[in-house]
């Protein structure tokens, strides 16, 4: 197991390096750099002034050299004013070193956020914490409900209960978040007036039933249908297995057969789907947090992309890649605990 995890961590690091390079390429395209220069020079500079700003701040240096600085394997050089020769920071709102030093992702320095006028290291953890709270409550609601629906539908394949639950699962999965979010807001907030608390106050005033229910419902309703359908298919397949028939012929009651013999094997496929919900939740919150004005990771990513905040977009991409790879590792390890016949090698 230890050797397997060590190899997987090595593959994860290599994958993160490759994907971070791809993200760095697209974020540092010429239109994005020009927009950044315009934003920093307050849109009153000429083309030559924009070019001078990019040259002075190192954006015209060799591409691989800039990537190495961002990673932290190449030392960052201080920016000097050509007129006075004095060291000046790239951005007025970041305390950048006045001498050559290694300062990149490997050293925990993710750069400066031009949209929020602070360091990425100060703003990103706040957004991740807010989204983490949202993801926790979504999983608390989504996973138990989905598993119960899937098990109930799969226990008696083809029954009226199975058809009804399958229809509801398909309907929920076919409804995207931006549709269900608007519908829930119109019904429960505007029409009935039950859940009219703003999700933005969940961060400042704390999570409550009134300001947090709608975002959780919007995200959970989609995932419930998807997990329930996978659980139902897996449960229906297990219920037709020979060892289930043998257990029933031994005289065991139906509840014991389902809970003790069928459920554990039926959870192998849904376990993978459940683990894949974490990266989906991290990226799916982009729509939900924008709809409900909840200032988490998704809201931060939208604002960073809209304002051409290069360092923040790079950091968000790195976090997303790390979460996807980590959840896949946990999923592979979890197989061995759910099914003793599977060996990690």
What is the CATH topology descriptor of the largest domain? MetI-like fold
Task: Count the domains.
Answer: 2
| Total beta strands | 2
* Strand residue percentage: under 5%
- Radius of gyration from the alpha-carbon trace, in angstroms: 25 Å
Strand order of the largest sheet: 1-2
| CATH top level class name of the largest domain | Mainly Alpha
Helix segment tally: 14
What is the global morphology? Answer: elongated
Q: Mean pLDDT, as a whole number?
A: 77
Explain what this protein looks like in three dimensions:
There is one protein chain. By secondary structure, the protein is mainly alpha-helical. It has two domains: 23-121, no CATH class; 125-338, MetI-like fold (Orthogonal Bundle), CATH 1.10.3720. It is 70% helix and 1% strand. It has a two-stranded antiparallel sheet. Helix 9 packs across helix 11 (254-266), helix 12 (268-291) packs across helix 13 and helix 12 (268-291) runs antiparallel to helix 14. The longest helix is centred in the middle third of the chain and has 36 residues, at 120-155.
Throw out a few tags for this protein.
single chain, mainly alpha, 345 residues
List the helices and strands and how they pair.
Layout: H1 2-27, H2 30-40, H3 47-56, H4 63-71, E1 112-113, E2 118-119, H5 120-155, H6 160-173, H7 177-191, H8 201-204, H9 209-239, H10 242-249, H11 254-266, H12 268-291, H13 297-306, H14 310-338
Antiparallel strand pairs: 1-2
Helix pairs in contact: 1-14, 2-3, 5-6, 5-9, 5-12, 5-13, 6-9, 7-9, 7-12, 9-11, 9-12, 10-11, 12-13, 12-14, 13-14
């Amino acid at each position: 197991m230890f050797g397997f995890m060590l190899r997987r961590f090595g593959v994860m690091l290599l994958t993160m390096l490759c994907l971070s390079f791809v993200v760095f390429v697209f974020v540092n395209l010429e239109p994005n750099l020009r927009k950044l220069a315009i934003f920093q020079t307050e849109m009153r500079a000429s083309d030559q002034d924009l070019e001078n700003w990019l040259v002075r701040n190192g954006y015209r240096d060799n591409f691989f050299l800039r990537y190495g600085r961002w990673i932290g394997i190449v030392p960052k050089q201080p920016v000097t004013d050509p007129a006075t020769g004095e060291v000046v920071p790239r951005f007025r709102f970041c305390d950048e070193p006045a001498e050559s030093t290694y300062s990149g992702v490997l050293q925990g320095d993710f750069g400066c956020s031009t949209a929020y006028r602070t360091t990425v290291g100060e703003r990103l953890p706040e957004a991740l914490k807010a989204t983490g709270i949202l993801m926790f409550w979504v999983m608390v609601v989504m996973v138990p409900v989905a598993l119960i629906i899937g098990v109930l539908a799969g226990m008696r394949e083809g029954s009226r209960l199975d058809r009804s639950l399958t229809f509801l699962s398909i309907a929920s999965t076919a409804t995207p978040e931006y549709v269900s979010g608007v519908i829930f807001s119109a019904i429960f907030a505007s029409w009935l007036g039950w859940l009219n608390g703003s999700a933005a106050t969940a961060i400042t005033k704390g999570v409550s039933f009134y300001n947090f229910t709608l975002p959780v419902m919007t995200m959970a309703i989609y995932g419930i249908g998807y997990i329930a359908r996978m659980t139902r298919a897996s449960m229906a397949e297990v219920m037709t297995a020979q060892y289930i028939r043998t257990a029933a012929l031994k005289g065991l009651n139906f509840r014991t057969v389902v809970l003790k013999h069928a459920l554990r094997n039926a959870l192998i496929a849904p376990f993978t789907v459940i683990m894949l919900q974490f990266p989906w939740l991290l990226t799916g919150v982009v729509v939900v947090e924008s709809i409900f004005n909840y200032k988490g990771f998704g809201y931060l990513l939208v604002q960073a992309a809209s304002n051409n905040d290069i360092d923040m977009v790079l950091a968000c991409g790195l976090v997303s890649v790390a979460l996807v790879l980590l959840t896949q590792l946990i999923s592979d390890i979890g197989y061995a605990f759910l099914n003793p016949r599977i060996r990690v090698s």
